């Protein structure tokens, strides 16, 4: 779709709008099944309202933190008493760090009135009859309170604004004192959108079941903060919640928020134990409350907010019949505006028109999933995971994937090695890993969804971490997700998306796919701490030589291993720069007769044919096997009895 300019059809829009009753939602911008850019962006109303959250983040006894909501909305509907829907992005990044590939921040005039609204939502959607509301999360930019990294403060910051837009909360004309302000121009329909932390907040607000939130579009978003910092007990190479809070708060705010900082440090112990702190930040647990439709967007190679963040959330929404759509790209942590711009804006436009304006444009009947197969090459599926996908059991034998199970394999943790080194050495025996490889595939093999690997493992020391990766072995051109742009190049040209002003042009740097030629592609991964074999609630020391059984949850994916390639599973210890190493350097022995791989394979896919096994790398274990009973815990760990 080419860049859009405002068309001079204001009189037509006014005439259409005046036919409806005053005080109802106005569809005066809708023609030919889509909202049209018929309103003036330059003349739009720009204002800030501070909404009372009812919280006291600094714990000073006031109990009246206010969060800043910067608003831009077309002037014409309000002038005729017509109400409009809202697109909202609640973020901690509007002053510290910027939004989008162009790192835009909010700017204000000398009187504090908003001038630049980061990203393109305002430029594109305000002329089409939407208001855009950008909310500073508590403790950031011009909002009161403290950052609590996914907890009640974060979620309430945004939820309070949804409540205000629906007449259930109080807004004010100033950060302190001021006069009450009502959102009489809003029709109560709100759609939340945002990438990373912004999209995470959208997930959290949707999980409250707040009335009026009609849809969310979480892009590369977190659904469970525990899984952002820990993977089944293993500490991810990610810092701490307290570090993240300090990153987005200004120094003055951090000084006032010492109590919250202390809680963040105490609530996220390094041992990886699941506790009340993490429970409060698990939105998947409250998926049953979600009333909004959900459009999930994620990079399958995102190593910041990893793919295991969208998988459980998607599954929980699917189990409850939530209207939903999904885009999965080959990129890392990248917004779709920067890797599929034209198609993205068109799709988002239709999505918001349908769920916020009620336009019957058919997007709810279109294919549910768009999957990037190769750089800039996409396919669609009616449902996701792909129709006909089944969980298939794949046998493991020393060096072989798809052959009869049995035997043992072993390796010694080397915390200097990572999945790239393992994949590069997939056909070479090294002491830090074990490889299970299929034969050369005669037909394409499609993996669609989440797999798992159950292992029975003995450690030579009292602590151990395990990593497992699925690898497509064969030459391919992929997006360079580990490059500086995580799969995109930023060009020197610009294109404009919507209307603009000198202080908010609506023009953004163009991009192209950054690609890499590889001989093997890691396309799914998972990590665990063996010390959490009994439960996530408590880490326990291992008994050297004793077997423990755990299930590694492999990140969801949708990948086709083409004919002529091989599928490989690599199991090792520390995945350098993705998880931290244990406090010992164990040698691990895997009992394959009590281990199994499950893969979500599509119907009609090739079977996993056996590869040629190498010589065994370790003598069989003589440790007795402890009988294990699987639990129903959300982490899918096994419970030792």
Description:
The structure is a single chain. The chain has 13 helices and 36 strands. The protein has 641 residues and is an alpha+beta fold. The strands form ten sheets. Strands 10-9-3-4-8-5-11-12-15-16-17-18 form a twelve-stranded mixed beta sheet, sandwiched between helices. Strands 19, 22, 25, 30, 33 and 34 form a six-stranded antiparallel beta sheet that branches. A four-stranded antiparallel beta sheet has the order 23-32-26-29. A hairpin with a 2-residue loop joins strand 13 (230-231) and strand 14 (234-235). The longest helix is centred in the middle third of the chain and has 17 residues, at 341-357. It is globular, with a radius of gyration of 26 Å. Mean pLDDT is 90; it is low at 1-25 and 614-641.
């Amino acid at each position: 779709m080419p860049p859009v300019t405002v068309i001079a059809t204001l009189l037509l829009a006014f005439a259409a709008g005046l036919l409806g009753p005053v005080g109802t939602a106005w569809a005066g911008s809708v023609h030919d099944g889509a909202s049209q850019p018929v309103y003036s962006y330059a003349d739009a109303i720009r204002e800030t309202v501070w909404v009372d959250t009812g919280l006291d983040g600094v714990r000073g006894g006031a109990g009246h933190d206010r969060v800043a909501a910067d608003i831009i909305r077309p002037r014409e509907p309000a002038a005729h008493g017509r109400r409009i829907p809202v697109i909202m992005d609640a973020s901690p990044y509007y002053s510290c760090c910027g939004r989008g590939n162009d790192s835009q921040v909010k700017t204000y005039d000398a009187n504090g009135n908003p001038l630049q609204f980061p990203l393109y939502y305002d430029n594109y959607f305000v002329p089409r009859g939407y208001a855009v509301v950008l909310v500073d999360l508590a403790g950031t930019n011009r909002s009161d309170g403290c950052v609590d990294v996914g907890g009640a403060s974060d979620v309430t910051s945004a939820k309070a604004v949804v409540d205000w837009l629906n007449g259930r909360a109080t807004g004010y004309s100033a950060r302190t004192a001021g006069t009450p302000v009502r959102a009489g121009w809003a029709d109560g329909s709100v759609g939340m959108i945002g990438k990373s932390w912004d999209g995470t907040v959208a997930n959290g607000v949707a999980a409250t079941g707040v009335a009026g939130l009609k849809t969310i579009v979480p892009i590369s978003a977190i659904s469970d903060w525990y899984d952002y910092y820990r993977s089944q007990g293993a500490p991810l190479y990610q810092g701490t919640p307290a570090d993240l809070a300090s990153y987005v708060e200004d120094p003055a705010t951090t000084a006032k928020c010492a109590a919250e900082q202390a809680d963040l440090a105490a609530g996220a112990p390094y041992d990886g134990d699941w506790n009340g702190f993490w429970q409060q930040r698990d939105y998947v647990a409250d998926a049953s409350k979600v009333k909004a439709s959900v459009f999930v967007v994620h990079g399958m190679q995102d190593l910041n907010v990893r793919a295991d963040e969208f998988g459980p959330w998607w599954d929980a929404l699917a189990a409850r019949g939530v209207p939903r759509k999904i885009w999965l790209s080959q990129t890392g942590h990248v917004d779709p505006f920067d890797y599929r711009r034209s198609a993205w804006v068109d799709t988002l436009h239709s999505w918001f028109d349908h769920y916020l304006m009620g336009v019957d444009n058919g997007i709810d009947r279109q294919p549910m999933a768009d999957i990037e197969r190769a750089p800039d090459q996409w396919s669609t599926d009616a449902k996701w995971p792909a129709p006909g996908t089944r969980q298939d059991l794949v046998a493991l034998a020393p060096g072989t994937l798809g052959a009869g199970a049995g035997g043992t394999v072993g390796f010694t943790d080397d915390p200097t090695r990572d999945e790239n080194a393992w994949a590069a050495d997939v056909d070479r025996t090294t002491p830090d890993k074990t490889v299970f490889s299929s034969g050369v595939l005669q037909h394409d093999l499609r993996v669609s969804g989440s797999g798992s690997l159950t292992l029975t493992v003995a450690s030579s020391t009292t602590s151990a971490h395990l990593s497992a990766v699925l690898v497509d072995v064969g030459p391919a051109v992929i997006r360079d997700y580990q490059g500086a742009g995580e799969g995109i190049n930023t060009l020197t040209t610009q294109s404009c998306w919507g209307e603009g002003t000198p202080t908010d042009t609506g023009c953004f740097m163009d991009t192209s796919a950054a690609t890499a030629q590889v001989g093997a592609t890691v396309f799914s991964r998972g990590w665990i701490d063996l010390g959490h074999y009994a439960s996530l609630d408590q880490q326990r020391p291992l008994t050297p030589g004793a077997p423990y059984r755990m299930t590694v949850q492999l990140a969801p994916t949708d990948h086709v291993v083409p004919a002529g390639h091989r599928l490989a599973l690599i199991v090792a210890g520390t995945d350098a720069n993705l998880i931290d190493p244990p406090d010992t350097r164990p040698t691990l022995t895997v009992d394959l007769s009590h281990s199994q791989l499950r893969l979500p394979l599509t119907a009609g896919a090739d079977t996993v044919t056996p590869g040629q096994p190498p010589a065994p790398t370790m003598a069989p274990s003589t440790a007795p096997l402890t009988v294990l009973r699987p639990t129903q815990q959300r982490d899918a760990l096994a419970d030792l009895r």
